[in-house]
């Protein structure tokens, strides 16, 4: 087991609606990472079809995730989150949008990728606005470290993408340095200034981006591709 994790397991009381989502929707939409049987998840069986699998790490309260899944019905979209109310809210949002191509994983994404995802099987991994752990003494808790990037790269199919976004400049620089050093990845936008990807129009503006804009921070996107 890892001695350092990138998240804090927050508590929080669920609303009536979020609890209803857990009671009514979770049995068909969700699974708990710690309760998965040994071996890789059969995503084709879970979704009831064969389609490219996209994993989003840290779906938060689900506003962006629900929209992204709704906008890409051709994907089998898997959201991984540790925050119970967030997953409840994501299920409510997905229900409202009529999303059918979304499944939820409750637990540690590193454990999921390590023990329950086959190498070379994912079409993409998304990591939008992870906890920046801004204090220098906490940088070791940031999820984007060489070991994590190597793990993500190993799970991507050739041509699959690892798309990150952050509004903390020194974290963006760390992401760029670590991913550029991973031999299985190449920067899709290496020719752009700084190697940053243009902000995709399809990615909804999050509350974190709005807050960053108010506070004068610039958001950066990075898109690396499995070679």
UniProtKB/TrEMBL annotation:
Write out the residues that bind substrate.
Answer: 135, 167, 206-209
Q: In which pathway does it act?
A: tRNA modification; N(7)-methylguanine-tRNA biosynthesis
Binding, S-adenosyl-L-methionine: 56, 81, 108, 131
State the Gene Ontology terms under molecular function.
Answer: tRNA (guanine(46)-N7)-methyltransferase activity
The record's listing under SUPFAM superfamilies reads: S-adenosyl-L-methionine-dependent methyltransferases
Q: What is its EC number?
A: 2.1.1.33
* Gene3D superfamilies the record matches: Vaccinia Virus protein VP39
| Keyword Transferase attributed | yes
| Pfam family for this entry, one | Methyltransf_4
The record's catalysed reaction(s) read: guanosine(46) in tRNA + S-adenosyl-L-methionine = N(7)-methylguanosine(46) in tRNA + S-adenosyl-L-homocysteine
Identify one Gene Ontology CC term for this UniProt entry. tRNA methyltransferase complex
Keyword annotations from UniProtKB, A to Z? Methyltransferase, S-adenosyl-L-methionine, Transferase, tRNA processing
NCBIfam families xref list: tRNA (guanosine(46)-N7)-methyltransferase TrmB
Q: Please explain the role this protein plays, according to its UniProt record.
A: Catalyzes the formation of N(7)-methylguanine at position 46 (m7G46) in tRNA.
In which family does this protein belong, per the annotation?
Answer: Belongs to the class I-like SAM-binding methyltransferase superfamily. TrmB family.
Which PANTHER family does the entry mention? 3-DEOXY-D-MANNO-OCTULOSONIC-ACID TRANSFERASE/TRNA GUANINE-N 7 - -METHYLTRANSFERASE (PTHR23417), PENTACOTRIPEPTIDE-REPEAT REGION OF PRORP DOMAIN-CONTAINING PROTEIN (PTHR23417:SF14)
**Protein name, entry field:** tRNA (guanine-N(7)-)-methyltransferase
Its source organism is Amycolatopsis keratiniphila
Q: Which gene encodes it?
A: trmB
């Amino acid at each position: 087991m890892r001695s350092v994790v990138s998240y804090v397991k927050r508590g929080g009381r669920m609303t009536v609606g979020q609890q209803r989502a857990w009671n009514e929707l979770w049995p068909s939409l969700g699974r708990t990472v710690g309760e998965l049987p040994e071996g890789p998840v059969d995503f084709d069986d879970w979704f009831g079809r064969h389609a490219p699998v996209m994993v989003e790490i840290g779906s938060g309260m689900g506003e962006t995730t629900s929209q992204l899944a709704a906008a890409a019905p051709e994907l089998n979209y898997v959201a991984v989150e540790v925050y119970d109310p967030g997953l409840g809210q994501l299920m409510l949002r997905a229900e409202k949008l009529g999303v059918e191509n979304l499944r939820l994983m409750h637990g540690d994404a590193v454990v999921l990728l390590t023990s329950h995802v086959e190498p070379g099987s994912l079409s993409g991994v998304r990591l939008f606005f992870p906890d920046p752990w801004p204090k220098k003494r906490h940088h070791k808790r940031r999820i984007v470290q060489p070991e994590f990037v190597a793990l993500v790269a190993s799970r991507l199919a050739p041509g699959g993408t690892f798309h990150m976004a952050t509004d903390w400049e020194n974290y963006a620089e760390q992401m760029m340095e670590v991913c550029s050093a991973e031999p299985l990845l190449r920067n899709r936008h290496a020719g752009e200034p700084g190697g940053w990807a243009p902000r995709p129009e399809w990615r909804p503006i999050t509350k974190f981006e709005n807050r960053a804009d108010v506070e004068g921070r610039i958001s950066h996107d990075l898109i690396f591709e499995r070679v």
